[in-house]
Amino acid sequence: MFTAVEHWWQRQQQLQKPWQQQRYIAFDAEMSGLEVKQDQLLSMGWLTMRPPVIDYGSAHYHLFSHAELDLKQSPVVHGLLSADFENSSDLRSSLEALASELEGAILLCHNITLDWNFLRRAAKPFGIRFKPLALIDTLRFEYRRMQRQQHHIERGSLSLQACRKRYGLPDYNSHHALSDALACAELFLAQAYRYGATEHTTTRSLAQVSRR
Amino acid sequence: MQPEFDDVKRFLLNCPPFDVLNDETLNACVQQLKAIYLNEQTVETLFKQHSPALYIVRSGGYDLLLPNGHLIEHLEAYDLFGYPSMLSGREVKNKLSVVHDGIVYIVPERVFHQLRRESNAFEQYFIRAHERRLLEETAGSGVLQAGQASRRREPIANNQLDLRIAEVIQKAPISLPSTASIQEAAQAMREHKVSSVMVVDDERMVGILTDRDLRNRVVAEGLPFTLNINAVMTQAPRSVYGKQTLIDALAVMTQYNVHHLPVLDDDDKPLGMLTNTDLMRQQRSEPVMLISALNKADSLEALVAEAAQIPVYMRTFAASAGHGSAVGRLLASLTDTMTRRLIELYEREHGVAPARYAWLAFGSQGREDQTLSSDQDNGLLLADNLTEEQLQWFAGLAEFVCQGLYQCGIPLCPGNIMASNPDCRHPLDGWLARFREWTRSPTPKALMYCQIFFDSRMVMGNKQLYNNYREQVAKLGQSEFFLGNLARLQNNVSVPLGLFNRFRGTESGKDSDLIDIKRYGIAVINDIVRTYSLHAGLTAPQTLQRLQLLQQSRLLSPRDNQALGEAWQFLTQLRLQHQLEVWGTDAAKNALDPDDLSTLTRRQLKSAFRVIRDSQQGVALKFGRGGA
């Protein structure tokens, strides 16, 4: 029990640090559908970001093939063709790699609930547990900011693309897990530096802004 | 599985010189990139923690500053910086300040050197950029579009008309002394398989004899073959100089309906013979047909009808021409031809010219950098002591030619610099008085005149009269006082880069983003080169030719000379491309939006403006002390 408490305490200390001193894992996944119970993870991509730098060398990308997967009605999901799956990764080892990177890091996603639920469900059969320091959702961050600044929030205005546009970030047109993870990392940097934070804002308070 | 970054790759492919890397190298490069979010809080860390490196602006805007705070350059998307320190091994001293937050890619030093080793083109780009020689790759090969950086100059049929005659003639002339017999001449033609011989005494060409002359003047007349050839040759035939272009030769041949043109060097010694077959071999037939159609038009109406085809034709020609300067030259040649034809038509009605004269082309026609929107700039140099009646004849000629050119599509000069204006018709003394006045009391208006009148060529008339005029005008142009004022005037035009190397629109109203590359580019180079030429006493009006003649100049270094020439060619080509694009619309003909240009072209345009700015300072320094 003592180690658990110590662990908890360390995490709290870590969260008190300024947000720029954390390690972030920007993550995105593509699924065969939106139903956690029946749909599957098709691909995931992530990379490491230490504000203000994103390291392309840290990028990971994995595709998964599923025997039972018929790719639904369409042969193309998220731009993935059946042929792409020939280079597929092992689901278990990919999830283990992600879990170890998330240790002590902050998970960063655009619309995090979906990704987080899929991840946990996929990991469960292997007994893998993800223990990120905190979760940050760039969509939620943007929603709260716009609400606070009393913007009218139109349909579609919270998409990754639309949010990036508001910060003058370049258009990325590929819908690819890694590309979206990268887009999300850049968006978070713009959000955090412009609105979320001063020099000494703690990670905790930033994470609260964007928590569900 | 190997992660791929398609969006980043696509961006880099539009960002020279990354477009020259092969796919494998580009992937390896992308996987070693870092991206940094730059704003006021993070900008300090860039040079502190990530230097040396090559930086690529992906978004946002930044100012690059000297250590003392002076702005060097404004950086925006697609701009590269940081590489000089890796090439020179010197520490980064410059500073960066953020105008708009954004993302900058970092190519670490190790990766940069790796890319240089893998691609020679990549390496060359940075060496040129470092030495500010970015324009070099366009010299003669036109404006390169992004993605076509490896395109090399290819011979284009039309382009050949731009060649100097001396480059085309294949062998020394077949020549005989005037005392040779007709039979010897015929034997020489047979032996060398040529259709003409040049008659040369003491290294001077005195005539030519063609196979047609043998038929018409010897056989048909029943003359003996033993006669000396000077009895039947054509004396003092039309000739051209080796330094002239094929377009010039073409114009002469069609104008006088001759098929053989003796070619002389600068000392009037024979270089060779140019035949119409040589010309045919060199180019497609359209320009020949057009010029010859203009020459054959036997009424004003017919001439106007032929001239109406010029814009359509020029569009095809321009699109396939190797570089913009060929187009300017062809247009000037067409205008020359129309002018000569109009003079002939006038003479047919009113009798031949009652005295010696020279029809002068000024401004862009004089410089041979005409465009389809250039207006007329011309004048008449008259013999001395003409009677009122003779003056009336020339007044009538001028009116007829200027109106005729107008009907042929060459706009009237809004400043009335046309032979139809009595102020532009003078004997030698009258012209010299005007030039003297301009050079001695250089009001802004006088200086503006000088920019037009000092660039002159004779289109038709008496060569001796013109040469005498030209030499005396050149002497007046050498006045230090005058040059000093001219130098200050050109220095007043500020290049649209401002202090920050950021493009600055030159227009007003809704066009405020546009840059007039004629007024703030080409014309400024013309002004700079004119100043050096006047100082050197040169009489050639063409900017590129002037630069060539200035190669021995002690005032203009060979490097600056080359840079000016390259910048001029680049801007001329860019203007031509722009004019082709806006053809038939009412968009500005000389002003363009830098945002519409490819990344490389934008960098080259900045480079060209930098060359101009540096040269302006040079001129101000060298000549600016003279004058008031």
From TrEMBL, chain A:
Which SUPFAM superfamilies does this UniProt record tie to the protein?
Ribonuclease H-like
Q: Name one GO cellular component term.
A: cytosol
- Coiled-coil annotation reads none
The family database entries (Gene3D superfamilies) matched by this protein are listed as: Ribonuclease H-like superfamily/Ribonuclease H
Query: Exonuclease domain: from which residue to which, for each copy?
Result: 23-197
Q: Which GO terms describe its biological process?
A: DNA metabolic process
Return the Pfam families for the record.
RNase_T
Query: Which key words are in the record?
Result: Exonuclease, Hydrolase, Nuclease
Q: Which GO terms describe its molecular function?
A: 3'-5' exonuclease activity; nucleic acid binding
The name under which this protein is listed is 3'-5' exonuclease
Which organism does this sequence originate in?
Pseudidiomarina taiwanensis
UniProtKB/TrEMBL annotation, chain B:
Is the keyword Repeat in the record? yes
InterPro entries, alphabetized = CBS_dom, CBS_dom_sf, CBS_domain-containing, cNMP-bd_dom_sf, DUF294_put_nucleoTrafse_sb-bd, GlnD_Uridyltrans_N, RmlC-like_jellyroll
Record SMART domains = CBS
| Recorded superkingdom | Bacteria
Q: Name one Pfam family in it.
A: CBS
User: GO MF terms on file?
Assistant: [protein-PII] uridylyltransferase activity
Q: PROSITE patterns under this entry?
A: CBS
| Ranges of residues in domain CBS | 169-225, 233-290
Keywords on record: CBS domain, Repeat
Tell me the protein's name: CBS domain-containing protein
